[in-house]
């Protein structure tokens, strides 16, 4: 029965989607930007009219959304001008880009467009990333129970409960929400990175083992796990690799390199800070091996998925590969031990047969775990069902209703106080 209902919704009048972005999408700067463009593509292909609004400043590297048929609107924090904007737009669906945006604008959406379906794109579980980072800096092992005392967790879980559906990029994080926070699976939807299938002919078009050179790391330097990884490479991993392979070269790419990042540039040691990549795909395709000794973080690692797409094997850690490969053989090696990490990196760089098998493993992971058609249709079906029967869905989310009630009371008046204060100043 649901199938026919969903089909009718799809064939009905055009639906409006409002995306409220934490930042303007920069797909060439971060995996988060690429993820947002994937979401826009899914809804656009299914006939949604999309408006993207953000309180963030414009940047030189933001993508031109109008080229994708998306309307752009700048909005203000703590301003009733947003109320006027959303009443006029009257969206059917609102997608919040990360929980911080839902905190700021969620109550205004609820008050002015109560019928709109509220989706939350978590990107990754911020509380998991924060708790792991804290444990790392305190030189202790992270425990799942650490999450229960994490301040960010209280805010993030409240945001998830207030929304009709949260898009989760990692199956491990869904398990955390189910088992640690007792979140009902009905308000969670697994949506990993979504890419096209890699066929045999696609693989043949990629540079061969012989045509590639150097190790590479790529990642936005504003993201703390990336900055930590580069430091770890420079101070610990790279000297071990150079000892075994004196001619080795590592090229480190990433958006927004600070002065402290640029200071790590040491050509005499084969360690090159290259800055922003004009074309990240081309950089990774030219490299022979991706190095990603990530020590804390959450979500799926866009850099490692990109490596698989480019046919470039990688060496990473258990944190780096978490929830990425469905227990299929990795696209290279997963190693937490420092000495073994360096040894496997040199092995992968030098042994063509091992390299080629690792490349094939990456293709298998992509084709099994990240097929766009497999997940995009499911997402649209669920959103369509929510559009039909949001009332019943919300009725069963009592804790979400409770939080909506109290958030509306508290946040609303705090925001109005800030707005009044800003006008006075």
TrEMBL record:
Short name of any one Pfam family annotated for the protein:
Glyco_trans_1_4
Record's keyword annotation contains Transferase: yes
Superkingdom of this entry's organism?
Bacteria
The entry lists its GO molecular-function terms as: glycosyltransferase activity
Listed A to Z, the keywords are: Transferase
* GO annotation, biological process: lipopolysaccharide biosynthetic process
What name is this protein filed under?
Glycosyltransferase
Organism encoding this protein:
Flavobacterium salmonis
Highest classification ranks of the organism: Bacteria, Pseudomonadati, Bacteroidota, Flavobacteriia, Flavobacteriales
């Amino acid at each position: 029965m649901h199938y026919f209902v969903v089909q009718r919704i799809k064939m009905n009048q055009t639906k409006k989607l409002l995306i409220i972005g934490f930042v303007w999408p920069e797909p060439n700067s971060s995996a988060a930007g690429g993820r947002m463009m994937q979401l826009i593509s899914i809804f656009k292909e299914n006939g949604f009219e999309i408006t993207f609004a953000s309180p963030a400043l414009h940047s030189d590297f933001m993508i031109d959304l109008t080229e994708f048929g998306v309307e752009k609107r700048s909005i203000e924090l703590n301003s009733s001008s947003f109320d006027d904007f959303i009443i006029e737009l009257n969206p059917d669906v609102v997608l919040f880009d990360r929980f911080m945006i839902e905190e700021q604008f969620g109550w205004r959406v609820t008050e002015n467009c109560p019928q709109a379906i509220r989706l939350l794109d978590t990107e990754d579980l911020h509380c998991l990333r924060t708790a792991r980072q804290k444990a790392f800096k305190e030189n202790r092992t992270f425990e799942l129970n650490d999450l229960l005392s994490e301040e960010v967790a209280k805010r993030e879980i409240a945001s998830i409960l207030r929304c009709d559906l949260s898009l989760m990029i990692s199956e491990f994080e869904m398990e955390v929400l189910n088992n640690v926070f007792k979140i009902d699976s009905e308000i969670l939807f697994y949506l990993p990175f979504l890419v096209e299938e890699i066929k045999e002919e696609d693989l043949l078009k990629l540079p061969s083992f012989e045509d590639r050179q150097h190790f590479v790391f790529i990642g936005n330097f504003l993201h703390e796990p990336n900055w930590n990884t580069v430091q770890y490479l420079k101070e610990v991993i790279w000297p071990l690799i150079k000892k075994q392979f004196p001619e080795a070269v590592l090229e480190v790419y990433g958006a927004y390199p600070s002065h402290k990042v640029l200071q790590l540039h040491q050509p005499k040691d084969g360690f090159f800070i290259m800055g922003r990549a004009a074309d990240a795909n081309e950089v990774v395709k030219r490299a022979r091996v991706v190095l990603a000794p990530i020590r804390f973080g959450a979500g799926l690692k866009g850099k490692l998925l990109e490596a698989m797409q480019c046919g470039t094997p990688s060496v990473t850690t258990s944190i780096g590969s978490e929830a990425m490969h469905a227990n299929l053989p990795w696209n290279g090696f997963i190693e937490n031990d420092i000495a073994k990490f360096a040894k496997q990196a040199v092995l992968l760089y030098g042994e063509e047969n091992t390299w080629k098998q690792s490349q094939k493993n990456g293709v298998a992971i992509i084709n099994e775990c990240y097929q766009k058609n497999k997940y995009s249709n499911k997402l649209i079906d669920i959103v369509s069902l929510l559009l039909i029967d949001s009332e019943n869905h919300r009725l069963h989310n009592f804790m979400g209703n409770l939080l909506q009630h109290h958030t509306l009371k508290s946040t609303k008046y705090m925001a109005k106080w800030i707005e009044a204060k800003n006008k006075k100043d």
